Amino acid sequence: MSTSDRREHSRTAMNARVKVIHEKLGEYVFPTRDISDGGIFIALEGVSFEPTLGDRVVVQVQGLPVPAPVLNMVVVRKTDEGYGLQFALDAD
User: Fold this and answer.
1) Which domain holds residue 17?
2) What pLDDT band is residue 8 in, cutting at 50, 70 and 90?
3) Could you tell me if 20 and 28 are in contact, meaning their C-beta atoms sit under 8 angstroms apart?
4) pLDDT digits 0-9 by tens, 53-62
């Protein structure tokens, strides 16, 4: 790992669709780009979704044969391609 890379967790490419629910912005479905022990990256693909860093969202993987767990996450990073979401350590 380079000294300029500050990531705590290594990433694994993951192509899935996740439902993201934001209290004020509503409900969306986005593709993921990668996942790590710390969170996921969602790709916007032209969708207008503009949360503020620090906002909490609820996330659930879609398209599985059984309902996936519902996860509380926090918006921690924004790029031109999408947002990095970190798993929340509490349910608040």
Assistant:
1) 12-87
2) low
3) yes
4) 999 999 999 9
